[in-house]
Amino acid sequence: MLKIHKNIVLDESQKPVAVQIPMEEFERLEEIIENYGLSKLMDEVKNDEQLSIENAKKYYQSLK
Fold this sequence. Notes:
alpha+beta, 2 helices, two-stranded antiparallel ribbon, about 15% strand
């Protein structure tokens, strides 16, 4: 599991209002979340019709 080194920021009443983490750990968390989202999207479309290479090229050219 990813170890997160966090600093909790408190307000004047000593209530937690924010968390600071090192940039490297934040970037790793972003990567994990993006990969999870991509895998969920791939699961959603795994049974969709697949285009041939020729049709895929035509489709992508039409987007330009």
